[in-house]
UniProtKB/TrEMBL annotation:
Organism: Rhodococcus oryzae
Gene3D superfamilies: Homeodomain-like (1.10.10.60), Tetracycline Repressor, domain 2 (1.10.357.10)
Keyword Mitochondrion among UniProt keywords: no
KW DNA-binding (keyword) present: yes
Annotated region (Disordered), positions in chain: 1-20
DNA-binding region extent: 44-63, 252-271
Highest taxon in the source lineage: Bacteria
Protein name as it appears in the record: TetR/AcrR family transcriptional regulator
Length: 410
């Protein structure tokens, strides 16, 4: 038998390692999962390479840098939604009704989102780190997805204005995308059924007839009072604004201190690090929400009224300080693990208050199903709130509350 240079039979020689044909796709998937779970800045190229069992140089053969990975991953998630909804919207059947077209688009978006749940929310939060031209491209893709829902909706409901149809389409997309922001477990088929029924309910919503929001705290538009002078409070307020505008990693202690009117060394007297400042801002927001929630529950006489008051409370706080929600979802990964766990436990307890009330109002729902709906309702304030420009007027908040309660009761 022929021998190799090592003296072994040729048939026993070590097999030649070949590069998988789908290596680029594998890298993109692992990167998208890592960015979604831990945030863009917390993940290194070496982390992604190690997860795949390859070297850094091997990864660079496919992507020149980490930013290129982010672009590919973010565009891939929204691109998958665009492709799925485009395909569902197209039909050679001249007899297909707008209702059937709309249903087909919703089903396609739901299936795509469920299949990519671990990475599907990447474009929602990490897209903030894209450069302006790449961000514009991603937004254009999402606008096209929204129009794939809004177009047949306008045919089905000609009484809607174009803006109303876009708001309702965004609300339905928010319901579908909400599953990427939590990890509650439910069989895929049940998730798809729940999301489809809820999205349909949202698209039937009558925004024009939405009543003014239930008020549980003073209307933010009419609040008056003296400005806060505490340096600690000013630092927290300015930090959240700067984190929102520039991103956590692009912000500096010096910048935050200057915005609050103090120098960097003085900032460290209040907060040992930038991460401590971020965590304190989140805990302060959680405390405010807890107090407002307790007040709303104390003023309620039954679970249905409590849900109405809770939704109004959440909208009041979210619309008054919209940057807090945005920073929470996009920057919580920058906190130490224990702090992330603590804050997520606080969020979980808040969600469970809603779940308890919702299952009392709708006993046909399991606790897990109610949890999905609560997350979908809470997510409306950020996704649709942007379209409403976080207007604190009674009409805008009334529309927001109508959408939230529709999600819970659909």
């Amino acid at each position: 038998m022929p021998q190799t240079t090592t003296g072994r039979p040729a048939s026993a020689a070590a097999p030649v390692r070949r590069r998988p044909k789908d290596r680029k796709a594998q890298i993109a998937l692992v990167a998208a999962q890592a960015f979604s779970e831990r945030g863009y800045h917390a993940v290194g190229v070496d982390d992604i390479a190690a997860a795949l069992g390859i070297s850094g140089p091997a990864l660079y053969r496919h992507f020149p840098n980490k930013y290129a990975l982010l672009v590919h991953a973010a565009m891939g998630t929204v691109g998958a939604l665009r492709s799925a909804s485009d395909a569902a919207a197209e039909s050679d059947d001249p007899d297909r009704t707008p209702e059937l077209q709309l249903d087909s688009v919703l089903r396609a978006l739901i299936v795509t989102t469920v299949e990519s749940r671990k990475t599907g929310g990447l474009y929602r939060w990490e897209g903030r780190y894209l450069r302006p031209d790449d961000r514009d491209l991603m937004r254009a893709e999402f606008v096209a997805v929204t129009q794939n829902v809004a177009g047949p909706l306008r045919e089905l409901r000609p009484e809607l204005t174009e803006r109303e149809s876009v708001i309702l389409a965004a609300a339905a997309l928010s319901v579908i995308g909400s599953i990427t922001a939590h990890s509650a477990a439910l069989a895929n088929r049940k998730i798809e059924k729940l999301l489809l029924g809820t999205a349909r309910g949202v698209l039937r919503c009558d925004l024009a007839a939405a009543p003014p929001a239930t008020t549980t705290i003073d209307d933010p538009a009419t609040q008056r009072g003296l400005a806060v002078t505490s340096k600690r409070e000013l630092l927290l307020a300015e930090a959240v604004k700067i984190f929102h505008d520039r991103g956590y990693h692009e912000s500096s202690i010096e910048e935050i201190g200057a915005a609050a009117g103090i120098n960097a060394s003085s900032v460290y007297r209040h907060f040992p690090s930038k991460a401590d400042l971020l965590a304190a801002a989140f805990h302060r927001a959680a405390d405010r929400l807890a107090m407002a929630t307790a007040a709303a529950l104390a003023a309620s006489t039954d679970p249905d009224e409590a849900l109405s008051r809770l939704s109004a409370t959440y909208i009041d706080l979210a619309f008054t300080h919209p940057e807090v929600l945005s920073v929470y979802f996009s920057e919580i990964g920058n906190l130490p693990k224990q702090e992330r766990t603590n804050l997520r436990n606080v969020q979980r307890l808040h969600v469970e208050e809603w779940v308890h009330l919702l299952t009392a109002v709708r006993p046909e729902l399991s606790a897990v199903e109610a949890r999905f709906l609560v997350h979908a309702a809470l997510g409306q304030t950020l996704d649709v709130g942007r379209l409403l420009h976080f207007d604190t007027g009674a009409q805008a908040r009334g529309r927001m509350q109508t959408l939230m309660l529709t999600v819970l009761h659909s």
